[in-house]
Amino acid sequence: MVHWLELWLEYGTVSAQNYMLHKELNKQVVLALKQSILFSAMNDQQFDQVLAFSDLVKKLPDQMIFQQGMDLTHIYFVYDGAVKLVRGTIKGDEKIIEVVLSGRSFAEGVLFAGAPKYPVTAIAMKPTVLVRTQAKPMLNLLRSSTDLCINMMGHLSARLHWMVKELDKQTLHNASFRVIDYFLSQVDDGEENEFKLKLAVPKRDIASRLSIKPETFSRALKSLEQKSLINIKERKIILKDVAKLRDLLAAEAL
Fold it and tell me: Could you report the per-residue pLDDT of 65-114, keeping only the tens digit for each?
């Protein structure tokens, strides 16, 4: 994958910008988009239509992409970087609902609402490259194809099941369970031994995502390290035995 800085330098700027998505000039971005769950079921003609009403967006760290309550205008695909989806509280605090990393999309879940509005605020967590797709033409394209609608329903259904599981974890399990589950979600299924994990986002944001306080997150890390389940080296986490950690999660023994 081309690093975000190379993409920026390609256009001679390091400021946040929007650019037309070109099928030839942005081959790697287009390929990643085509392989994503959201667009993989499209034939070439349908996908070319999507490219025609999509553009490339570059965001700097802490830059807002859209705000909670705004009218839905676009859906997004993260090519590189990280985006946090947050909801604000009356007290002015923010709760991270999800951290969206490269290869995943967001905001498509509200496409079918009568008067769709963004239910969360989206903020870039680091330099981020996005594909931004206009919502109305995308909805019209879906209406023209039963197969595409069924694929979208399957995608949204999987997201709904994921959210139910996340709610279960955050209400029924302790901090150590949530932390290990979060770490393992970033490990390939075939991995069983030691695995080195680099934290893609700050620890305070991971804590918010897991619905625990930062100090609780730190205590959980220390406890897991004392049990010889992980090693901590600055922003790197070493999972010492992935298979064992999966077994502990399955047995709810953390």
Answer: 999 999 999 999 999 999 999 998 777 778 899 999 999 999 998 887 77
Structural tokens at position 82: 């990280």
171-to-56, 120, 167, 175, 254 alpha-carbon distances in Å: 38, 21, 6, 10, 15
Q: How do the domains of the chain map onto residue ranges?
A: 4-145, 173-250
CATH architecture of 173-250: Orthogonal Bundle (1.10)
What is the CATH topology of the domain spanning 4-145?
Jelly Rolls (2.60.120)
Cβ contact 100:159 at 8 Å = no
Share of the chain above pLDDT 70, in %: 93
Q: 100: which strand partners?
A: 83
Is there a common fold for 4-145 and 173-250? no
